[in-house]
Amino acid sequence: MYLGKLFSMRKVSLAAVSLDAPAPAGDAKWVGLRMLLALTLSCLAFISHSVPFLLVLTVVNLALLWYLGNGQISLRRELKAFVWQTLVILVLYLIRFQDLSGLWGGFKISWQLFLALLPSMVFVRSTSQTRIVQALNRIMPCRMAFVLSTCLKFAPQLLVEVRSIYEGQVLRGARILPRDLVKPWHWLDLLHCVVVPAVVQCMALAGNIALAARARDFGSQPKRTCWPGL
Amino acid sequence: MNPVAEPAGGLFRLSLKDALFIGFCAVFAVLARMMLRLHLHISGHAMLVTAFFLLLARGSVRYRFAASFAGLLAGSASIFLGFAKSGPFMLVKYLAVALVIDLAGLLMPNLFRNYFWCALVGGLAGGTKFFTAYSVNYMVGMDPTVNFQASLFEAAGAILFGVLGGLLVPVVLRRLHAYGVIS
To answer: Are B125 and B9 in contact (CB under 8 A)?
Structure first.
């Protein structure tokens, strides 16, 4: 049972990845400001070594979490990672210093690392993908922003196709069910039956999108134009 | 000939089709990490998919900096999808792996069909975990000895899984070549 769980597929909500979600109020400049704020807070976590500074930074992060997330964002997953990371660091500090005096230093390091990741998590959870992509268009080369946004947009469709390939291969008798994949010698079957067709599908989809974009004169202007005036 | 079709990409020119394929590899590298729930508690197991998809991106197209482009996209995607455990440094982590792959590709253009070289490059790419983990821990002021041990611990797992990820690439590329999908 445990082994089955070991290789179980996590149900990822594709709606979270979708770019079609309704965008909240605020324009690309506001999103860019949020992005900058998240990066600044992350960087501040690395240079803050004193406890008062860390406390202030924690309060600022929590206020930001409350303000941007409207109290809807849960930190359960992040706190689990924080506890696991703290345990590893504390054990290493205990081994290094051979007494309990080093534990506080280890905890402080873990606290800093947590504060470094918290702002970007808050930013992403509180901002819709559409707004993020619009902001990306301003800071990235337009071709790169187009590729990134298009790939994120089509990722759910590709995942559906990969799933149908997987189900088709299972029906044909391929040994790629989770209970089969517990045995490493079956991993090659997964590679041949699912990964290779999925890559071929990826290439075909990339070719179709590129053709459609070219047919709409993509790349004919040095600066990308959008409809309807994003 | 289709007048709308774009000319094929080359060593220094990335066609839109190739760019999109690289983008899909990058997005899959991020999504696979989200979807595969490996309760192994072994540090560095994410390097399996990272090394595999970045090597695949570089091995499938002729563009010399394909892995770097994929790394840049994967780093950006993981930051903006909220999967960046270490915040903005995720970009550096992906780029470090990608640069090793691109450098190896520049030195040995045919390495992607060879199991040994792919495993070696995968391992070297996994080895970058040591430097990225050491840098992050150094910046927060971790004790140098503990930092060295912690980074080594993380890098050992990453190297192992990088080698495994590298070993999978020639199998896929040979099949794609046999189907005539890549030249």
So the answer is: no
Chain B touched by A191 (CB under 8 Å): yes
Are A165 and A197 in contact by the 8 Å Cβ rule? The answer is: yes
Query: Does pTM surpass 0.90?
Result: no
Across B90-117, average pLDDT: 90
Q: Which of A25-29, A220-224, B71-75 comes out lowest in average pLDDT?
A: A25-29
Q: Of all residues in chain B, what percent carry a pLDDT higher than 70?
A: 82
| Contacts with B, A 112-171, CB within 8 Å | 112-113, 116-117, 119-121, 124-125, 129, 132, 136, 140, 143-144, 147-148, 150-152, 154-155, 158-159
Asked if the peptide bond before residue A24 counts as cis, ω within 30 degrees of 0, the response is no
pLDDT in tens, A50-79: 888 889 989 998 888 888 776 666 777 777
Instruction: Provide, for chain A, the percentages of residues in helix, strand and coil under a 3-state DSSP scheme, each rounded to the nearest 5.
Output: 75, 0, 25
* Domains located in chain B, CATH noted: 16-179 (1.10.1760.20)
Record: contact B18-A151, CB cut-off 8 A: no
Q: Please name the residue of chain B whose CA is at the shortest distance from the CA of residue A96.
A: B146
